[in-house]
Specification:
The protein is α/β, with parallel strands linked by helices and about 375 residues long. The protein contains twelve helices and 19 strands.
Length: about 375
């Protein structure tokens, strides 16, 4: 149990903070809001860095929707502990000043100067589940890890997306010697491809993305060849891949036969594995005839904490941190842009142009 002195919030914590709120699709505001309360069994964190996620962009563009507006986006988060709740389980030896990264299911609140979290660290087993009204059970607690001193702030914010990719790959791994296709060469595609290339022993691994800048980066990091969708459709024989990892966002194409997901299903072998990573509340086009004709195994790592509890994700986030430290995922190469939090116009420009930029990971720096 913590001492009484340890549980008190530091006197320098203000009552209000600046936050970037999404008030409607493609509409943001720089607002002054109340600093979150310190949870009895949690932590209050002062924001250091938050990297922008494609999920943030999906909310920004209106492909995903919060339960209500306004909402503060941002969840690929690194924060510094400024207060510890009186009922906090401190078996992980968390102290004021420690840096914390967490992974939650459908979380908001990062683009603000402070946030609270109720963490679960590797080795702890606890839960506070609830029905999320989006067809799965979520947890009000989040898996978390302490960041060691040798990991840079800007790179540490990439622990969260690495955790997401690792959950999916570890739950649905390729077999050694598989021929792998990664759909999408955004940050998650790069992370997943790097993990598969360096750990799971594929025979070959290629990528596809409409953005040629990202395709070239994928070839530097893991990909034997980076295709654009038309090239994949026209030059690759059907049945060429055993395993597809789909990180694509919402896709709209005039010619449905050129939908990259349909192309990938044509190129996968019968009984191949198709892993879906990305999330959208818009219905996406899957070729049900090819699924039936080939017996394609469509799978995903579940959000539902009844089947993938948060305490299991706590072990994954600890591993994700080691993956970055070991260079299996190259955080320094992935983090290609920094936007200071006080540059509100620059941040909104980044949100507007995210899909076409040559950049990979943009980190919002609060320091």
């Amino acid at each position: 149990m913590l001492s009484e002195a340890t549980t008190l919030a530091l006197p320098t914590i203000p009552q209000t903070m600046k936050a970037v709120e999404l008030i409607a699709p493609r509409k943001t505001a720089l607002s002054t809001v109340t600093v979150p309360e310190l949870p009895h069994d949690g932590l209050l964190l002062k924001t250091r860095c938050v990297s922008i996620c494609s999920t943030d962009i999906s909310y920004y563009e209106g492909h995903l929707f919060p339960e209500e507006y306004p909402v503060i986006l941002g969840h690929e988060y690194l924060g510094e502990v400024v207060a510890i709740g009186a009922g906090f389980d401190n078996s992980a030896d968390v102290r004021i000043g420690d840096r914390i990264v967490y992974w939650g299911q459908t979380d908001f609140g990062g683009f603000a100067e402070y946030r609270s979290v109720r963490p679960i660290f590797s080795g702890q087993v606890t839960a506070d589940t609830f029905w999320a009204d989006r067809n799965f059970y979520d947890d009000r607690m989040a898996s978390a890890v302490k960041v060691p001193d040798d990991l840079d702030d800007l790179h540490a914010s990439l622990i969260e997306p690495t955790t997401g990719a690792m959950r999916s790959v570890l739950t649905n791994p390729p077999a050694p010697g598989d021929r792998v296709l990664v759909l999408g060469s955004g940050p998650i595609g790069i992370i997943a491809g790097s993990l598969i290339k360096r750990i799971f022993a594929p025979r070959s691994i290629v990528s596809v993305d409409l953005n040629k800048h990202r395709g070239a980066f994928a070839e530097q990091q893991f990909s034997d060849h980076a295709y654009v969708p038309d090239e994949l459709a026209e030059t690759v024989p059907e049945g060429s891949y055993d395993y597809v990892f789909d990180t694509l966002p919402t896709v709209h194409v005039a010619d449905e036969d050129k939908d990259p997901r349909r192309i990938a299903m044509r190129k996968i072998r019968p009984q191949g594995t198709y892993v879906l990573y990305g999330a959208s509340q818009e219905m996406q086009k899957f070729d049900t005839w090819l699924m039936l004709a080939k017996g394609i195994n469509i799978t995903a790592a579940p959000f539902d904490v009844r089947f993938f509890p948060m305490h299991r994700s706590a072990n994954v986030i600890a591993s994700a941190m080691h993956v970055l430290r070991a260079g299996i995922v190259d955080a320094a190469a992935l983090q290609t842009q920094v936007c200071h939090f006080d540059d509100y116009r620059g941040l909104t420009d980044i949100l507007d142009n995210y899909r076409t930029t040559p950049h990979l990971k943009t980190v919002v720096d609060f320091r």
